Amino acid sequence: MTSIVFRQAQPADLPAIVALLANDVLGQQREDPSSPPNPRYVDAFDAILADPNQLLAVATLNDAVIGTLQLSFIPGMARLGAWRGQIEAVRIAETHRSSGVGQQMFEWAIDQCRARGCDLVQLTTDKARPDAHRFYERLGFVGSHLGYKLML
What is the Cα–Cα distance from 38 to 117, expressed in whole angstroms? Predict the structure, then answer.
């Protein structure tokens, strides 16, 4: 049996990452899975890769990208200068949902946050994703705050 590998995304992974982001009800409305990738994705990927406090990660199985998430390591003044790990843009390929890949990916991501000295891990999730909410709660996340966004 081949094991899942978690690693930093490479430029060749970009089309697969965008395809994962676009492959759900919300992503179909806001992502552009065209080929070649929209230049905005390329610019964002380059900025993430250049920033030591960002980690765009992929989960691979037999060298195929089957999951992705972005980790942001955020310094802060609150909580005695605590660092936070922010997890965003989480997606698992449809064929691998409910297989344990998501849990493994989160365990890996949380370990990355610990290794960076983060005191807490946080995430936001769209209110329209009740399955994701149940998943995060099973992992021990608590819906302790209410988040707001302002589209610009």
Answer: 35
